[in-house]
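The methods section describes the discrete structure representation at length, but only in general terms. Since the whole study asks how a given chain folds, the encoding of that fold should be made plain. An entry of this sort, consisting of the sequence and the corresponding backbone structure tokens, reads as follows:

. . .
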Amino acid sequence: MLRRIVHGIDTFTEVTGRWLALLILPLLYVVMYEVIARKIFHAPTTWGFELTVYLYGAHFMLGMAYTLLHDRHVRIDVIVLQLPEKIQLWLRVITFVIIFIPFVGALTYASIVYAAHSWAINEHSWTAWKPPLYPYKTVMPVALVMLLIQGFANFIRDIYKLKGKKI
């Protein structure tokens, strides 16, 4: 049962990660448009820079779970890599419980409150363009929940590996 759940989480993260990677395309388009408008036509937009920030932020945040699935987050593990695999697994399990769950859990909770407040006050940007901020702020809890779920899948996989089983 757990194996199917972990596989389902991994599949969801893989599929959504590949689709969300395509957010780079509208980001590229907006940057190119803004550069051409600004440098060639001397007519910068009021929305270009702000939209690039939103698109890049969403791209970055929503990619966290996919990055965790493929073990590509930045870390310094020069010493840990010298240890036997079983000790590495134990360290991952321990740090998941002591660091990952409290940290990502607290961030998830805080981002839910943050986004809910933005929705409640119908928050808009303070710039001349004034786009609504609540959809963008909703990306944060969604991304953190995805990261938390993928973290649990990795944790279960590590527990199985500690028992000498494959998942």
Remarks:
- The mean pLDDT is 96.
- Residues 2-162 form one domain.
- Residues 85-120 form the longest helix (36 residues).
- The radius of gyration is 20 Å.
